[in-house]
Structures are given as C-alpha cells and as structure tokens.
Amino acid sequence: MPGSSRPDPRIRRRALLALLLGVALLATSAGPAHASPASDTSGAAAQHDPMAEFVDLGSMYTANVRLAAMDVRPDGTPVVYGFSDGTPVSFNAIDARTGELLHTTTFPGYTVASSIVVDDSGLVYFSVRAPNDGTLWRYDPATDQVTKIATGVVGEGMLRTLLIRDGILYGTTYPDAKVYSYDPATGAFRDYGGMTTDGDYAWGFDEADGRLWVGTGAVPHLFSLDPATGGKTEIPLPEPVASRASFINRVTRHGDLAFVQYSPSLDGRNHLVYDLSAGQWCCTGTIGQPIAFGHMTRGAVDGRFFYASGDKVQGYDTATRQTTSIGWEDSPLAAALGTTRAFEPMQLGTPQFPGTTLVGMRGDGTIWRYNLQNRTGDILPNVIRSTPATVHSVGAGPDGNVYFGAYLSAGVMARVNRGTGQLEQLSGPKQADSITTHGNRIVVGSYPGAEYYAGEVGGDAAWDWGSNPRHLFSLGRAELGQDRPVTLVSAGDLVVGGTVPDYGELGGGLVVFDPASGAYQFHRDVVPDQSVTALTTVGGLVVGGTSIHGGLSSTPTRDRAELFVWDVEAGEKVWSAPVVGGGAVVQALTVGPNGMVWGLVGDGTVFEFDPRTRTVTRSFDPGFADGNLWGFRTELFYRAADARFYGNAGGKLFWFDPQTLEHGLVLAQDVRIAGMDRDETIYVANNTNVFRWEPADDPRDCDATVTGTHDGPLRVTEGKTCVTGAVVDGPVQVGAGASVRIEDSRVHGGVTTDQARVVSIARSRVDGAVSITRTSGRVLLSGNTIDGALGCAENGWAPTDDGVRNTVTGQVSGQCVGLKGESS
Question: Which of 104, 560, 578, 711 is least buried, going by the fewest C-beta atoms within 10 A?
Fold first, then answer.
C-alpha cells in the first residue's frame, strides 16, 4: 500500500488486533508490510474482542530516512541506499540516475536503522534495531536477496557503526562499547571487548594507518586499536572536548588527516582534526563548523572531500588543508540541504551530470544531485513507501482536540478533529516529547536539546511547523545540559516544563517561560541529581514529581523519586519529600475535581496528595507498574462523565474510582499512549495507530432515556436506552445489538437480554427473574435487589458487580454465580 493511505475511520479492524496482541512477523522483501489478518472468530461463542469498542483512526504516515549510503552496484548502476524508520523499518535501493526504486525490504518487528557499510564487491552489510537484538544482515544486489547473518552479535544489543578493511567487517556496539570483527569467508566473529568502562557506546569508527580509531560515549574517549593483536592506545582529547563533550560519534579519515566529530557542539564547533603524520591535533580553524552528522563525505575526488556547514556545501583540499567553494550557495540547490542524512561524490555518467556529481538523500526520501562541473542540479521525488510513524506523546490542544507526537520521525504530528472524527496529519518536530495548552496556544517540547515551540490554533491561524508553532528557545545539551522536555503544564500566565538531562548527566530541571515572548528561566537540580518527569498545577502552585534517573548512560545517586511543590511567583521550591512507596519514578500527576492531586509511581502505586497539608492522604497498588525511566508514555486524567480517573501504564488502559478506590482494566496490553479531548472522548494508541474509544456503556451516550413512570413493557431493539430514576410497569426485553443501562430504578417484571451489546443494571430493584445471555460487551450487575432467579450464560465478558454485591431471592446460575451476597 504505497503512499499515505489510511484505513476507513469507521472500521473496527480485526486485522489490527494482531498488532495489539504482539504478533511477530518475519522480514519480507519487495512488498508492503502488513500484519496478517487475525482469524475470523465471529462464529465462536462467547469470544470477546477487546477492541470491539475502539474505532481505528489510522496512523501518521511518512518516509523517514535517518540513515543512507551511496555506492555502485556490480552492474555499474550508481545507487542510493536509504532506510526509512517506522513500523516497520524498510531498506531501499534507488537508482541515482533515474530515481527508480530498485529494491525494498521491510523488517516487521523493527523500527529503526542502526548502521550500514558497502564492501568493494557491492555487498551491503547493515543492522536494524528497536528492539535491540544485535542482528547483522547482508544484501546482495546481484541476487537481490537479504540474508540474516547473526543475532546477538558478541552478546550486544545495538550494532552502532560498521566499516570494511581488507575484506573483514568491523563494527562497534552498545551497551558495552565493544569492537568486533566478522570474516565473511569463514563466518567467524571476533570480540575485541569493551573499549572503556565509563561509557556504553562505541560509536565513531574508521581506519587510520592500519589501526581502528574508536570513539566512545557518553564519556568521550578516542582509542587506536590494533586489529591483529587487539591492543589499544588512548589518544588524549584536547580541552574543552575532554571535559565537556559527551560523545565521539564519528571519525572520518582523509589522507593524513582524521576528522573527529564530538557532541554536543561546544562554542559553535563539533570537529577536531588530527594530523596522522605529525601525531598531533591541528587545523581546526580550516574547516567550517559545526558540521551535522552525515554531512561529511567519506569519498573524495582528486584529494578533495566535501562537507556541509550551515546551509552551505563546500570542498576541502587535504593537500592545502583549506576549504574551497563549489558554488553551492549560488546554485538552484542553495536551499536544498534541509534534512540531508548523507551525501557522497558519484559518477552518474549522463549528459546532464558529467564527471562528478554530489548525491544526497534527505529525511523525506527525496534525493538531490549537484554537478560539480556545471554547478547545477535537481531534486528527485521520494519513491520510498511511507510507513506509520511510532506514536510517542499526547496532549490536548486549545481547540479541544487531542494532539499526538511521533518518535524519531521525519517531522510529523497529528490531531483528531472532533468535528469530523478524522486523524489529521500535521508537520512537526522530529520528536515531540510533551504537548500542552496555554490559553489559545499549543506548546510543544521536542528532543533533542530540549527545544520549545508555541503556536496559535484555530481561527485564521494555519498550522505550519516552524512558523506556527514557532521556535521559542532551546535549553541545549551544551548550554544547560538538558535534552528531553518530558512534561509541560500551564500555570497561570506562564508555562512550566520538566526536563531530563543530556546523556551521561544527572540533574534535570524546571523551565518557566512565557510562550508569547519566549522569555524563560531555568532551574536545574530542583531535586538534586533527579529529573523532573511529571507536573500539574493547583491553587497557584505547581506540584511536580521526579525520577532518580538522568540521561542515558548516567548512574543514579538516589534510590527514591520525590514529590515537590514549586511557587511560580516566588520562583522557588517550597516543599519536597520522597514519594510514597519505594518508586524510582513519578510517572504521572493530575488534579481531581476536589483539588486533590493524584499520582502514579513507577512501581504501580497510586496516591492522593493534599497540596494544602502536603501530605499523602491515600494510596493503593492496583498493579499498574511501568518501567519507563522518565514517565514517557504514561498518562493520568479525570473524566467527569463517569467520575473516574483513567490512564495508561505498562501497556494497560486502566481506570479507578477516587471514592471507593475500585479499579479495573479496559485494555490489558499494547497500549502505548492514552489521552482525552474536551468532550471527554478517550483515545489510545498502540505503536502506530490511534483509536477512539466508543464504550457502549458510555454515560454520555443514550439514544433514548426513560425517567418517571413507563407504562407497560419496555422493549429495546436498537441503540442504547438509559433508564434512570424510573419505574417501569412491565418487563424489560433487550434484543440483539442493543444496549441498556438501568440505574436507581424499579422494574415491575423481569429483565431479559439476548445478544445485547452492553447490559448495566445498578442500584435498582427488579420484581422478577433476570436472564442475560450472549452479550458481546460488558455486563454490570451492581447493588441490585432481584426478586427472582438470576442467570447469565455465554457472555463475552464475565459479568461483574464493581465490588457491590446483589441481593437475589431466587437461584443464581451460570456466569453470575458469585454476584450475590453482601457488599465487599
């Protein structure tokens, strides 16, 4: 299914149940990657489909290239290899002369590309991840076949960087920062072990003078490794890189110079240059900086390679050690660099592109070509099939709609239009970590570098990411050591955000800002060495929760998360204490209708906090544990329609009653995110698809309402009938596909339902027998008096009483056994 096709928003797709149940699929070549439809169980008795009340609204679709390489196939075809991240990730080969898609392989179960290298014969070696299982693959362009070589290479999860030297494949890893080799002739692997004990990543990687140069992180080191003996020597890094950088994430050797990229950028620079002949650092000022990852070619022409700094592509002469102009800034492609992931010099061999042409692939799958001889070029359209982006965040907009952010995308967001019921795709950041509303503005925090955006929604304000919403400010990895803006809340005239620090660091913080002007104040270590992962506001104060974890590759110094209170006007923390239980992360916070704050801790504890007395007044453990380090993809919100809190954690969509602390599950697995719009409609998402929950027992939805006295029998044949505070002088009968809710009422006769959708009878008296059979949805019998028999059979859900038993004078049989007795 090429392009951005989306399912009919009204279809309740059984096929998608396969995704929600975690069906694993094998890699398939040269075709769309769809989950196989689940078996048709429509004829099976008492088989409940957990998605029966959820409407699939579709996905955010995009080509999302984050890794690319250029080479020549054995038949002489110049080719661009590009991976499109998504669900699933795909590997694609495109003819650099014609733009024709030559090959596609999708990898269901994997979502992100990790590494790629091409050997001298044209064989392509690569790895994909998420999940991180350390699998190495090979693509043979001569046979057009993809082969899995090995899984769990040298016991590692991620294969980070690959290179070929003398026919041997070498690679680096995470999380033990290893180097390994693979001999294609013998199939033998060699484990060189970890390069360092204070970092998880071995990343920057190239060959220099017969040795392997290896850069590490999140503590930066640079090593020279002898591939024959395995001996290594550390190459000291100069200041301020040694003390202030986090990663050495790319090494590129050209002649007698090695270009070493580090992150984050420091003082506007992110590259060092090492003179291999002299054995010393040199020449840093001869190359424009900073240079984005992938913006330096590994190939060279006549002693000149090419790099991009800012919006300009330039040449670098390794003999003179000087940057040279290639005329890019005066060409038709002057503004075309955009999200370029990689570019290389190639020989296209066409009249339009004589000699050497620079060929680059951008994040949206388009390919630009710039000819060095005639100093002109063009852009080839994307031919990579769009795939669903991974849903990452959720929040309400000022228009009352729910907005969704994507994980490591090409720049997309989405919202559900309440008026049309459709999922609308929008432009957005690479990764939206948090979303909130402030007045008529939507505010978004994005990764990396903890960037913040705000824009108006509705009226004449058109959505155009970058201008509306516009960029307000960045906290930055190098500037303030912050990376992930994981939570946001509107607090009076300002917005308050909580952050997670950069890789290898502890100490997130609180940023308080004006989304109109962009003016901000940042307070680090609100709770020392902890990240701020959850925020809510009540009574003019902000209540926050923390995580003991900092950025990836950091080591916590505390063992319990904390709850704190921040006075926005005073600009200071006025109270804090360890969170109830023993949890390491406060996953979510929200306010109930009585001004009490409710929170969810990573160990599964739910608690009620009084912000006036600053005490935890109640807590319980319903089993909603979640192992996320920073509260990502864990939500909690109050729904007035049924006076319940809803949320998601550990893949579950759950609810609890704040009065009784009764609780239950709506969906038991594969829920990645959940949110609610202004109309109190609840939405959930799995990895890719957004669903609208349409519960048949939704208290807001009654097709017919009975109050007062109803003379004679009541027959419900379609839709949903609500009987509230009524007296029915006759029996109640509910037919196939219809629903009934009877509350605080009396029925002078029995109640009989067969093949109904939902049946709910609570706090009512029935003068006769009750028979409930073959119900497809929920059956609730709670706190009733039944003067007669009670029988339940073949219902899709086991009938429940929500903890309040029924008084039954007659026999109780079938699935309703256990619903009779005293209140529990």
Answer: 711
